[in-house]
Amino acid sequence: KSNNWDSLNTERKYLIITKDDRMVKYIEHDESNDDVLWCISPNYKRFKIYKEDIIEVHRVTFVFNPE
Q1: Which of 9, 25, 50, 55 is the most buried (most CB within 10 A)?
Q2: Distance between alpha carbon 32 and the CA centroid of its chain, in Å?
Q3: d(C-alpha 67, C-alpha 60), whole Å
Q4: Which strands make up the sheet holding 22-29, listed edge to edge?
Q5: SS3 3
Q6: How far apart are CA 30 and CA 5, in angstroms?
Q7: What is the DSSP string of 19-63?
Q8: Mean pLDDT calculated for residue range 5-28
Q9: What's residue 2's pLDDT?
Q10: What is the mean predicted confidence (pLDDT) over 28-53?
Q11: Cα(15)–Cα(23) distance, integer angstroms
Q12: What does the alpha-carbon distance between residue 2 and residue 6 come to, in Å, rounded to a whole number?
């Protein structure tokens, strides 16, 4: 679990939990607004999320795909 926005690594995947959703994404810091993170994944259009909407952030260390 991460509790420091500055320690989020843009080369790692994160589980982001908000009051409305859960998602596994790469993140980027917004260069002009410190209250925004950009969520990125190869199969979905990039979108922004406000830090105040995030309940928890966990770094993903393992993903299992049975296919």
Answers
A1: 25
A2: 18
A3: 19
A4: 44-50, 36-41, 22-29, 13-18, 54-59
A5: coil
A6: 12
A7: SS-EEEEEEEE-SS-TTEEEEEETTEEEEEEEGGGEEEEEE----
A8: 91
A9: 67
A10: 93
A11: 6
A12: 10
Helix (H) or strand (E) holding 18: strand 13-18
Sign of the C-alpha dihedral, residues 6, 34, 36, 51?
A: positive
**In which residue are the tokens 């500055």 written?**
6
Length reported for the chain: 67
- Residue 42 to residue 31: CA distance in whole angstroms: 21
Tokens of 44: 């979905």
Range 29-59 burial, b when 16+ CB lie within 10 A, else e: eeeeeeeebbbeeeeeeeeebeeeebeebee
Question: Six-digit token pair at 51?
Answer: 């830090």
